[in-house]
Target: MFS transporter
Amino acid sequence: MSRPASDRTVDPAPVGDRPVRLGLRQNIAQFTLLVAVNALVGGMLGQERTVLPLLGEQEFGLRAYTAGLSFILVFGLAKAATNYLAGTWADRYGRKPVLVAGWLVAVPVPLLLIWAPSWTWVLVANLLLGVSQGLTWSVTVVMKIDLVGPARRGFAMGLNEAAGYGAVAVTALVTGYLAQSFGLRPAPFLLGLAFAALGLGLSVLAVRETREHARLEASGHVARADGRHDHLHDELTDREVFVQTSFREPALSSASQAGLVNNLNDGLAWGLFPVLFAGAGVSVGRIGVLAAVYPAVWGVGQLVTGALSDRWGRKWLIAAGMWLQALALAGIALADAFAWWVVAAALLGAGTAMVYPTLLASIGDVAHPAWRARSVGIYRLWRDGGFAVGALLAGVVADALGVRAAVWVVAALTAASGVVVAARMYETHHYRHAPLAGDGATGG
Model:
């Protein structure tokens, strides 16, 4: 079986005494390390999923939904802005320095949550968490795209996001049981402290720079046969990359709006679902189960959906995933029992798994390697801006009409986003008809 040119061993630009090579098999050690690092990044987020909404209500007396969701608003704004900067800095200074900086910012977060005497401290912790997540998660995405080359991009993003959100799920589950056994503080956040220390150590001592891999791919970049990207050359300014990714280029801009809406409904799930379940009399331990089911299915599902997008293409997997999320949100709004909420949360996770790695892969398909990190950063700015939009929208609607009404509004927006993808986005994966090198998990 022939291998795509992008997956063959090429070494015109050695780093030290190591030749630069593209492909999953050729870079499996560093790729696996980056998967582990991203799991730790996800764990930092997971420490809050079950506990923080309950902490705001029970320890700080926040009764208004908008006030309770303020931590997600701060997190989303900080992460969105930092995503944009992370892409620019990764192109300018290299990937590894940005990764290390992100972990340094993460270290104080669990300590602030443990010692917080007021909700303001929690907001400061989430500002730092947003900055940290924007730096660390963005750059691990870019580094994996650098390493694997075009043919296995969807599979690589599936592994990346599976590791991150699998860790979110496991940590949400464990912290729920820790909170039920030992209280809301400090036990659940001690996990986050361990994650930050380990992530910083691995990033400093073991992770290698990958910017030369992107330069190698750029040197052999082949234009699409259909001529779609002829106007997207390798010398775009920061402003031009922003305009193309956000508004002008149909696939990039469609992915950006879908990413925003996806994280809008994730912000709703993070901030209001625990309150909805607690109001129905569900125990903290069972709330932890419900908070874990959604990211667990999301995380594991991406192991399948990322690779499927390399075979089937991106567009319809994204559109169908948005519609499945909308259906699941409607199910959560209608349900009133633990078992039904488990089913709806699993469907929400499945829909998100169809969308999340596929959107990232589509950005990698279209963006030129010379400005891909910037485009990924801009896409993630819009996507994670959805946390802020979702927190604000869900809080306002929940205060005015109730939590279930907020869920219905977000379900309608999610369905509409799928329609936009179906109508405007084109298929981005032009390798999908070519044989893939190494169909197994460690293929090149």
The longest helix spans residues 119-148. The mean pLDDT is 84.
